[in-house]
């Protein structure tokens, strides 16, 4: 699950390859949170300069081993 919070809040499920798409977002700074069972959730900041801007943003997630988070 990928959640985007900022000027608007939306969520999407990625496909089997991990690809996700948010379209027609208003400009601004967003917090992107990615989560998947068995992995440590990841949070990043993403900026959208103008409506219609296409941005590629890869999220790398670490496996949740039950230990302390990796730095």
Describe the protein in words.
The chain has 71 residues and is mostly beta strands. The chain is built from no helices and 4 strands. The protein has strands at 2-5, 9-12, 28-34, 42-48. Strands 2-1-3-4 form a 4-stranded antiparallel sheet, with no helix packed on it. A hairpin with a 3-residue loop joins strand 1 and strand 2 (9-12). The protein is elongated. The two termini are 22 Å apart.
Which key features would you list for this structure?
single chain; 71 residues; mainly beta; 4-stranded antiparallel sheet; 4 strands
Give a nutshell description of this structure.
With 71 residues, this protein is mostly beta strands.
Note the run of SSEs as H and E: EEEE
Backbone shape: elongated
**Rg estimate, integer Å:** 13 Å
Would you count the extended β strands for me?
Answer: 4
User: Low-confidence parts, pLDDT < 50 over ≥5 residues?
Assistant: none
Instruction: Give the % helix.
Output: under 10%
Please state how the strands of the largest beta sheet are arranged side by side: 2-1-3-4
Q: β content, as a range? A: 25-35%
């Amino acid at each position: 699950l990928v959640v985007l919070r900022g000027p608007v809040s939306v969520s999407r499920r990625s496909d089997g390859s991990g690809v996700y798409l948010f379209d027609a977002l208003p400009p601004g700074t967003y917090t992107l949170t990615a989560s998947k069972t068995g992995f440590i959730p990841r949070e990043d900041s993403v900026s959208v300069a103008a409506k219609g801007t296409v941005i590629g943003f890869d999220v790398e997630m670490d496996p949740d081993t039950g230990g302390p988070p990796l730095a």
